[in-house]
Amino acid sequence: MLIKRPDFLKPGDTIGIAATARWIEQAHVDRAIELFHRYGWNVKLADNVFEHHFQLAGNAERRRSCFQKMLDDSELSAIIVGRGGYGTVEILDSLDWGNWLNKPSWICGYSDVTALLCECYSHGVSSIHSTMPVSFHDATEIALEQLCQALSGSLDHVEWKTSMHGSANIVAPLVGGNLSVLYSLLGSSSYPKGPAILFLEDVDEMVYHIHRMTTGLLRAGALEHIKAIVLGGFSKMRDNTIACGFPSDNPWGQTSLEAIVDITRRLNIPVIDGLPAGHLSDNRAFYHGQMVRLEVEKGRAQLTWGV
Question: What is the pLDDT of residues 167-184, one digit of tens each?
Fold first, then answer.
C-alpha cells in the first residue's frame, strides 16, 4: 500500500483539539496551547471538548459531527484528540473522509485513538501515535518534544533498551496501538492489514485478558503477515491475586510479556519489548503507518524513518 504523508507543520499553522471519546478540562487545553505556541502553532478547539454526556463529550452524533467538522476544516494541519477512554470506535463508520483525503491533516493520539490511527491507515494515510493533552501534565519533556518533532518533520528515529536477545533488521510499515482497541477492530475494515511491524500496549487489564486478546488476533489470522511485534507499556496490569484485591492467590502464571511471547512463538517472529510508548509518562511519539526500519542489536532497539 502506498501511504500518503500529511504535510509537516510550519509556524503559523493550526492544530485542532478534538474530543471523539471523553471530555477534557480547561487545564488540559491551557497546557496544549502553551506547548504548541512555543512552536508558533495556533490552536482551534472542537465545539464539544468541554461538553459532558456522562463519561463522554456528547452523544455519538454530537461527537461525530464535531469531529467531522474538524476533518473538513482545510485550515487545520493537525488534529490531536484531547483524551481517550472509550467511544471513538462508535463514530468510525459514520465519518466521511472524502474532503480530508484531498488534504489530510495529521491525526494524533494514543489509547482509544488507536481506532482513528488504524482508520487513517485503511485510507492509506500516515498518522502519529503520541501523548495527548490530558496527559501533558505528566508527560516527560522528551515525549512532548518528540510529538512536536513528529508534527514538524524532524523526528527521524526512536531508540530504547530491550530485553530481547539476538538481533533483527526489518523494514515494514509500523502499525497498531492499544491491544484492547485493536481487538475491538477485528473483522472490520479498520483493522490494519498486510505485512507490518505490529506495536502493542495496554493499561489496567488482567493478565489473562492480554493472553485472550492476543490469542484472538492469532486465531483470526491478524498476525499472519506480521514481521515483528514491538511492545510498549503494559501498565497497571492486574492478576487474580490478593495483592490485586482478589480473595485468594490464583495467578495466571505469566507476565503480559511472557503471555504474548508464548502465543506468538509459533510465528517465528521477534518480539521486542521496552519501547517507551503507551500509558506511560514517557510516551514517545512515532509515525503510524509509515515505512520504518527496526534494528535490534545487543539489547538496543531503534526505529528509523525515511528508509
Answer: 999 999 999 999 999 999
CATH superfamily of 158-305: LD-carboxypeptidase A C-terminal domain-like (3.50.30.60)
- Residue ranges of domains in the chain: 14-155, 158-305
- 0.90 surpassed by pTM: yes
The string of DSSP letters for the chain reads -PPB-PPPP-TT-EEEEE-SSB---HHHHHHHHHHHHHTT-EEEE-TTTT--BTTBSS-HHHHHHHHHHHHT-TTEEEEEES--SS-GGGGGGG---HHHHHSPPEEEE-GGGHHHHHHHHHTTB-EEE---GGGTTT--HHHHHHHHHHHHT---EEEEE----S-EEEEEEEEEEEHHHHHHHTTSTTS--SSEEEEEEEES-BHHHHHHHHHHHHHTTTTTTEEEEEEEEEET-B-SSGGGT-SS----SS-HHHHHHHHHGGGT--EE---S-SSSSS---EEESSEEEEEEETTEEEEEE--
Q: 165 or 11, which is more confident?
A: 11
